[in-house]
Amino acid sequence: MADYEREEKPTVDTRQISKPNRRRRRQETFSTYIYKVLRTVHSDTGISNKAMNIMNSFMNDIFDQICEDATRLAQINKRKTLSQREVATATRLIIPGELSRHALSEGNKAVSAMNTSREADRDDADDAEGEMDE
Asked: Residue ranges of region Disordered (predicted)?
């Protein structure tokens, strides 16, 4: 029988092995938008990190409540797609009084701006298509 010498394997420190770089998903916050609104309302006032976190939490809660109510309204009406109407009704249900009127007017303004932007994009696409045909 032949004597076999055991080959020594180099010891590897498992802490030194690099794991594949997994990017953590960035946490989306409303902080930039909250800060912009604060600047337009009170340009000389700042906001602490703790207050920003509270405002962000508040915005997330309101957003979730509006989404849940709008989804429930769409299900009641046997629709699979949320429309502006469901979101507006949910906003009226969740946000009280005059604040809801302001929220609805800003929402309507945003929807109309989006629609005009879409129409402009369609017109540009039609113009480009017409030039290609000629």
From this structure: 1-25, 106-134
Range of the domain at 78: 31-94
Q: How far apart are CA 84 and CA 103, in angstroms?
A: 13
Annotate 93-124 with b (16+ C-beta within 10 A) or e (fewer).
ebbeeeeeeebbeeeeeeeeeeeeeeeeeeee
- How far is CA 94 from its chain centroid? 20
- Please state the domain count of the chain: 2
Tokens of 66: 């509006």
Q: What is the pTM of this model?
A: 0.69
Q: Are 33 and 47 in contact (CB under 8 A)?
A: no
For residue 30, name the pLDDT band (cuts at 50, 70, 90). Answer: very high
